[in-house]
């Protein structure tokens, strides 16, 4: 496992971590101040700044990207499927313009939450079939753009409203079905928050191997968790044995960024520089 | 699948559902008023009433039990393991006195939450090993008392603080290891709230079979879920396709009670009779 204790060259900042403190340009400037070499920006932040301006800001700061958040939300009723398809194609175009190594996919849960306005359903098995089919379709466009897709399994607490792919095994089953040759076009984004509880995690990381491990995200699981979406913890403040997961991922050859993504009302209420200083300190000591 | 639409003879009330509205005796009286034939009482409610008085109240009302909640919380540091063992033996003794068909096991998460005062740990794999060993030990005592143990897999959102057995597969793996002959002494309690999201659910229910299916609990998953412990929904108010799970369980031969267990600040704030009337109506229409 790489030694992170001496510097933070492998730290990437998912820009949602400080989304309330400033716009994308302000976040990029703060990363430059703190010697952070990579970010994973969100589409809404890019849209607010303007794609061209975002591309220029990233280049001017000499930043790399560790991903682009996010595509997906595939589950929809018939009336909303074309919208979902086109929206995901635009995500690929934007990722390419920004120089992202992959588009992270949050696949969507039930249609009424994934694509609001869709007819409500309780059919999670049907949602999973839709996700499979929609990734198959998106993959053609992504391959043509030479843009890998990283399926992010989300914690089962989000099965209804955000993602019906809830385990690493499920994500890898889709990868194996749609990309049996392990071409590099399809893989997974693993966030310790979503997967730490899984008794099947280590075998599935081994199954993934280097070619499927496209992104690695860290934060922590707090006890108690006051809000299931926006009470994620700073690394070290919760119960996840983060180094054991990173060790497993790196044992497969993963050598990319360790991306910090924290949705937290608490951390959104602190100054951006304080958050980034804390991220760097924890990256060096508990990741 | 049994037809529940004409009566509620297969409705059991987990007494936690109305724990804030009255003590165990008041709940038993309310069940009698509403023609509810079975309950699953909690140990703290029995203790508050007194075991002898609880036994008499259950008998006088002619109630059956669908389970006894709960044993478990096995994970502990060395200083707290004897306490955990003895506590679980008392749970078996109480269940026997009450005429329960099984003791439901919530196995515990990390030691600092499972048995407060224990030395803190992030070792969830170690917790799982402890659970396996402790159930093996408890099973000897349970067999001597002729009291089946029902392992309840809990939603992964509780992996840290309540139960590190988070899937039906995990629970059944323990059953198969400790009771390979399927003697009836060890099985599972399946609550739709905890398992509805699991892509492996239907195959695991088939794997369980009648001999492992010792209890079946219902409520619903609300979107949004405002509190991860105490915002469970009344059946029909959430996203779970409950009949599909009940159909799978009954296809294996399960013919026991459909037990309603709702931890909800909203429902705890309504009059007991209103809650029970609603439970009965929903049992007949959406379970």
Task: Please provide a written account of the structure.
- The structure is a homodimer of 287-residue chains.
- Chain A is built from 12 helices and 9 strands.
- With 287 residues, chain A is of the alpha/beta class.
- The first copy, chain A, has one domain: Divalent-metal-dependent TIM barrel enzymes (TIM Barrel).
- The first copy, chain A, has a 9-stranded parallel sheet.
- In chain A, α2 packs across α3 and α7 (168-178) packs parallel to α9 (201-212).
- Chain A is globular, with a radius of gyration of 18 Å.
- The N and C termini of chain A lie close together (11 Å).
- The mean pLDDT of chain A is 98.
- The interface between A and B is medium-sized, with 29 and 29 residues.
Descriptive terms for the model:
homodimer; 287 residues; alpha/beta; TIM Barrel; 9-stranded parallel sheet; 12 helices
Helices and strands in order, then pairings?
The structure is a homodimer of 287-residue chains.
Chain A: E1 11-14, H1 24-33, E2 38-40, H2 43-49, H3 51-60, E3 64-65, E4 68-72, H4 81-98, E5 103-106, H5 111-114, H6 124-144, E6 149-151, H7 168-178, E7 186-191, H8 192-195, H9 201-212, E8 213-218, H10 242-251, E9 258-260, H11 265-268, H12 272-285
Parallel strand pairs in A: 1-2, 1-9, 2-3, 4-5, 5-6, 6-7, 7-8, 8-9
- Element-by-element helix/strand order of chain A: EHEHHEEHEHHEHEHHEHEHH
Can you tell me the residue ranges of chain A where pLDDT is under 50 for at least 5 consecutive residues?
Answer: none
**From the structure provided, what is the oligomeric state, counting identical versus distinct chains?**
homodimer
Helix run count of chain A:
12
Determine the mean pLDDT of chain A: 98
Find the structural class of chain A using helix and strand composition. Answer: alpha/beta
Q: What is the CATH architecture annotation of chain A?
A: Alpha-Beta Barrel
Radius of gyration of chain A: 18 Å
What level of helicity do the residues of chain A show? 40-55%
How many domain regions of chain A? 1
CATH class of chain A: Alpha Beta
The CATH topology of chain A is what? TIM Barrel
> How many runs of DSSP E, i.e. beta strands of chain A?
9
- Give the name of the CATH superfamily of chain A: Divalent-metal-dependent TIM barrel enzymes
Terminus-to-terminus distance of chain A: 11 Å
- Report the largest inter-chain contact: A-B, 29 and 29 residues
What is the percentage of strand-forming residues of chain A?
A: 5-15%
């Amino acid at each position: 496992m790489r030694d992170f204790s001496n510097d933070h060259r492998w730290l990437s900042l998912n820009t949602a971590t400080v989304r309330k403190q400033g716009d994308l340009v302000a976040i990029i400037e703060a990363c430059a101040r703190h010697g952070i070499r990579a970010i994973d920006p969100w589409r809404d932040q890019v849209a607010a700044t303007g794609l061209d301006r975002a591309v220029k800001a990233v280049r001017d700061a000499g930043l790399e990207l560790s991903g682009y958040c996010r595509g997906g939300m595939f589950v929809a009723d018939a009336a909303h499927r074309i919208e979902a398809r086109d929206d995901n194609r635009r995500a690929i175009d934007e990722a390419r313009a920004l120089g992202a190594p992959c588009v992270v996919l949050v696949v969507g849960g039930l249609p009424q939450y994934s694509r609001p306005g869709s007819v409500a359903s309780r059919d999670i098995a049907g949602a999973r079939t839709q996700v499979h089919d929609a990734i198959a379709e998106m993959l053609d466009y992504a391959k043509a753009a030479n843009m890998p897709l990283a399926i992010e399994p989300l914690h089962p607490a989000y099965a209804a409203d955000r993602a019906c792919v809830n385990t690493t095994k499920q994500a890898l089953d889709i990868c194996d079905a749609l990309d049996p040759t392990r071409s590099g076009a399809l893989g997974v984004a693993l966030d310790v928050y979503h997967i730490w509880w899984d008794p099947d995690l280590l075998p599935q990381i081994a199954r993934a191997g280097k070619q499927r491990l496209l992104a690695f995200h860290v934060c922590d699981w707090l006890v108690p968790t006051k809000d299931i979406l926006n009470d994620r913890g700073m690394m070290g403040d919760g119960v996840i044995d983060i180094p054991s997961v990173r060790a497993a991922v790196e044992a497969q050859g993963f050598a990319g960024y360790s991306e910090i993504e924290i949705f937290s009302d608490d951390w959104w209420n602190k100054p951006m520089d304080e958050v980034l200083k804390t991220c760097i300190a924890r990256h060096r000591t508990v990741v």
